[in-house]
Design brief:
By secondary structure, the chain is of the alpha+beta class. Helices cover about 20% and strands about 20% of the residues.
Length: about 325
């Protein structure tokens, strides 16, 4: 979507760009076009828990807002690739999210709290502060979603299988996406693997802006450039006691004769830092110490043993984007 957006800006705002993604057409209209932008069905590989669902049949909550629609479609597409059910939209959450964005514009400070008595404080805004992932400095909802998908902890929550409904708001330079108000669905304890099996065009690097907390202690030692994170997430893994023994997660490059990728491995009970302890709940994660190679197939393997000796072994592959990004 980012590449299409750049092409549209070069060619003129009323140019309609048509592309083919894995055999299916994608039509995109730029900002300022007189017709509503449309994202047609996209064919993906993968196994779906409830069978394949068509993204084109998922309602856009604000069809006249092209940026909001693009961001919502991108997120739903990623959930589809992971085998998760589509999200419903909770319009009633938007008011509190906007109020919290107003509060942050007035006061700054800690993004995930509001202090009673300060200008702009509201109970609704305070709830949004604790229930949302929050981003600053983005230019749109689409760029904010793309940024979060390029991290680890902030990527996992919007994709979690148990999330049933959500909402997102981009207001006064702040992006908010609710990840806690409507979770606990029938697939809450299902596993989320990312990048999902068979995914192509995977970004090679962790997002350059990073996230807070970071999943690696000393980011500067790596020149602030890490590889895209690979993880297995499940709610039952949120505490160390859920594991009978230390799990494993390895990543190898097929192009380099299955050479192991060097990086940082952590899991519940063994977070990369005390600050990441809470965010790390549920994650068995591997972060390469440098960006992955472009246009390369990688194979991942994870082994998780639960109390009682029940072991789960997962093997999957994904391919990186043709350019390093």
């Amino acid at each position: 979507l980012r590449e299409l957006g750049k092409q549209m800006q070069r060619e003129g705002e009323y140019l309609q760009v048509v592309a083919t993604v894995r055999g299916e057409p994608v039509t995109w209209l730029p900002s300022g076009a007189k017709q509503a932008s449309t994202l047609l069905p996209v064919a993906v590989e993968g196994v779906f828990r409830e069978g394949a669902w068509e993204q084109s049949r998922v309602d856009l909550p604000h069809p006249q807002d092209r940026d909001h629609s693009a961001a919502w479609s991108l997120l739903q597409w990623r959930r589809q690739q992971c085998g998760c059910l589509p999200l419903g939209y909770a319009h009633d959450l938007e008011d509190g999210m906007r109020k919290h964005a107003e509060y942050l514009a007035l006061n700054g400070g800690e993004a995930h709290e509001e202090v009673s008595g300060k200008p702009g404080y509201t109970p609704e805004g305070a709830r949004a502060a604790s229930n949302c992932i929050i981003g600053h400095g983005d230019s749109s909802s689409l760029s904010a979603i793309a940024m979060h998908l390029g991290t680890l902890y902030h990527r996992t929550r919007p994709l979690q299988p148990g999330l049933e409904r959500s909402a997102m708001v981009f207001h006064k330079g702040t992006f908010l996406f609710d990840v806690f108000s409507h979770r606990g669905g029938p697939h809450r304890d299902a596993l989320l693997v990312y990048p999902p099996h068979g995914m192509q065009g995977v970004r090679t690097a962790f997002h350059e802006q990073g996230e807070s907390p970071m999943p690696v202690k000393d980011v500067k030692a790596h020149g602030n450039r890490l590889g895209t994170a690979v993880n297995v997430f499940s709610e039952p893994l949120r505490v160390a006691e859920a594991l009978a023994e230390g799990p494993t997660l390895t990543l190898v490059s097929v192009k380099r004769r299955k050479t192991p990728v060097a990086g940082h491995f952590h899991f519940p009970g063994e977070p990369p830092s005390t600050r990441a302890g809470r965010s790390n709940r549920g994650n068995v994660a591997f972060v390469p110490e440098r960006p992955l190679r472009a246009r390369t197939r990688y194979e991942a393997s994870a082994r998780i043993v639960l109390p009682g000796g029940r072991a789960f072994v997962y093997r999957w592959w994904f391919e990186t984007h043709r350019k390093r990004r």
